[in-house]
Amino acid sequence: MVREALNSALDEEMSADPKVFVMGEEVGEYDGAYKVPKETCFLFVLLVKRFFNWIFMQITKGLLEKYGPDRVLDTPITEAGFTGIGVGAAYHGLRPVIEFMTFNFSMQAIDHIINSAAKSNYMSAGQMNVPIVFRGPNGAAAGVGAQHSQCFAAWYASCPGLKVLSPYSSEDARGLLKAAIRDPDPVVFLENELLYGQSFPVSAEVLDSSFCLPIGKAKIEREGKDVTITAYSKMVGYALQAADILSKDGISAEVINLRSIRPLDRAAINASVRKTNRLVTVEEGFPQHGVGAEICASVIEESFGYLDAPVERIAGADVPMPYAANLERLAVPQVNGTCLQLRAFCFYILMLASEPQI
């Protein structure tokens, strides 16, 4: 599962480097955020784990027992306080991993992330590195309302000095988190809690302790020739499912897992578009000033002459996330909706291509 991939990455990096430590709410004594207490009814625990597996983060499970309270630090509910402490520790050569229960709470600490961590290397003329990771669940969960459902990929990716990663699979989670911890610069690591309980096949290479993925490199999850689909985090799975459905209509879609939002792998995206001649971006964040908008701009600037159709964006609705479950489903892209938009887009292009030219 993705949570085990993240846990093993943290464990191995803490074992390899004594300067790495973890700080956040419920990361230690509670064995990871949202753990169900031992005294809770056993049948209730089974029910919740069966139907709501995603809520059990427990990314730091077992780390306190193994590394002690000096390296696994429980904090009060004060994001501004412990994030500032983490940045200060990074100034002095330590490698903090700061966990937010949700990235919505990072708004309490955004001054330390943007004005302290992201800008210090530039403002010190390269004399000061800030090797710190800010990690936690990002984006829409389920039934938690507008204040706990935002995607912050575009927010943080707009800031020079930060690196922004967003894993999809277990391989992504393990390899990218290791890369983030080893990096000399601040990294915002955006997970999706709906993926924590999802399992993915992994190779022996991925399980090796030396495994690490490069920052700034996308992965082609599925090759195709008719249209390029870019996505990140949970939307990669939706894009792959939509591509499977489209294949039954004879449409061959190439799906790119971005992995890295900043730096963005513009070379891979443009190379794919120059092959397929069409682009559709998929994300669950807001459409205005989104990651998809930046990708579209890059393709227009670098590969305009290769496009056979206008670029298309599929994104979340431009409204705060509703609480009602039926409205919540309408506010973020779904597999069927994504597939319908892609099918309409491709058929529209095929129709234009079949019209006689004057």
UniProtKB/TrEMBL annotation:
Q: Name one GO biological process term.
A: pyruvate decarboxylation to acetyl-CoA
All copies of the Transketolase-like pyrimidine-binding domain together span 2-198
Q: Give the E.C. number(s).
A: 1.2.4.1
- Protein keywords: Oxidoreductase, Pyruvate, Thiamine pyrophosphate
The reaction(s) catalysed by this protein are: N(6)-[(R)-lipoyl]-L-lysyl-[protein] + pyruvate + H(+) = N(6)-[(R)-S(8)-acetyldihydrolipoyl]-L-lysyl-[protein] + CO2
In the UniProt record, does the keyword Oxidoreductase occur? yes
Pfam families documented for this protein: Transket_pyr (PF02779), Transketolase_C (PF02780)
Q: What does this protein do?
A: The pyruvate dehydrogenase complex catalyzes the overall conversion of pyruvate to acetyl-CoA and CO2.
NCBIfam families per the UniProt record, alphabetical = PRK09212.1 (NF006667), PRK11892.1 (NF008854)
Name of protein: Pyruvate dehydrogenase E1 component subunit beta
Species? Acorus calamus (Sweet flag)
